[in-house]
Amino acid sequence: MSQQRLKIEAAKAALKYVEPGMVLGVGTGSTVNAFIDELEASGIRLEAAVSSSEATTERLEAIGVEMRELNHCGDLELYIDGADEVDDHKRLIKGGGGALTREKIIAAASRQFVCIVDESKCRPLLGEFPLPVEVIPMARAYVSRQLTRLGGRASLREDFVTDNGNLILDVRNLDLINPVRMERDINQIAGVVTCGLFAARAADVVLVASESGIKTR
Ligand code: 5RP
Questions:
Q1: d(Cα 156, Cα 130) in Å, to the nearest integer?
Q2: pLDDT at position 1
């Protein structure tokens, strides 16, 4: 099965968590795009959605979903999003699409975070995928130096500005044996908006699509 087919299978599996009339948090990326297609095909009518990116908002609006600002909602019942890497403890690296900050906010404000991935994203240890870090533009060089002190090698994502008007540093070589501590250490650097480690607030459920079907963690 192709990776795209597996993403569609993971997206389909997420539908069973979605209830008609709910206000749903929706992430960003190609797996989420597959989920939006499946949501449309399912005919499930949401009350509204809270989106983690302009790209997702555009797609949801195109299928007739009403958008709502997070500030106008209480905590959300459910957030559905993909990931770049997942470990056995449901901790994640996210931000390949650069939407990590809004994704982290919505995950924090949601009672249940269901993460949808194909099996290529599963790792015994996080860190093969470069860790995205969103930074305030004037802090770019300072934050890069601090990340070097933490053992990383940061490179600026070229020609990319986040929906929040910031930059992304992609960081290789970090030791992520303790992802909760690294998440905290990076987030404490002045000028960092947030990093793409979702360890302190991991996913609640991970749906992994593989050749042998869906595995639920
Ligand atoms: C975007 C993300 C995505 O969830 C992550 O990059 C996975 O994307 P895809 O579903 O396209 O593989 O964190 O910021």
A1: 11
A2: 86
Cα–Cα distance list, 172 to 59, 138, 190, 198 (Å): 32, 22, 20, 17
Please identify which residue in the block is written with the tokens 């997070």: 70
Closest CA to 135 of 93, 83, 187, 199: 187
Per DSSP, 3 falls in state H
pLDDT for 147:
98
Q: What is the pLDDT of residues 37-83, one digit of tens each?
A: 999 999 999 999 999 999 999 999 999 999 999 999 999 999 999 99
pTM above 0.90, yes or no: yes
Atom of ligand 1 lying closest to residue 116 CA: 10
- φ, ψ for residue 193 (rounded to 5)? -80, -55
Q: Of 37, 84, 123, 163, which is best to mutate to test ligand 1, by the most ligand atoms within 8 angstroms of its C-beta?
A: 84
For each of the domains in the chain, give its residue range(s) and CATH number, in order of start. Answer: 3-124+200-216 (3.40.50.1360), 131-196 (3.30.70.260)
Q: Decide if pLDDT at 151 tops 90.
A: yes
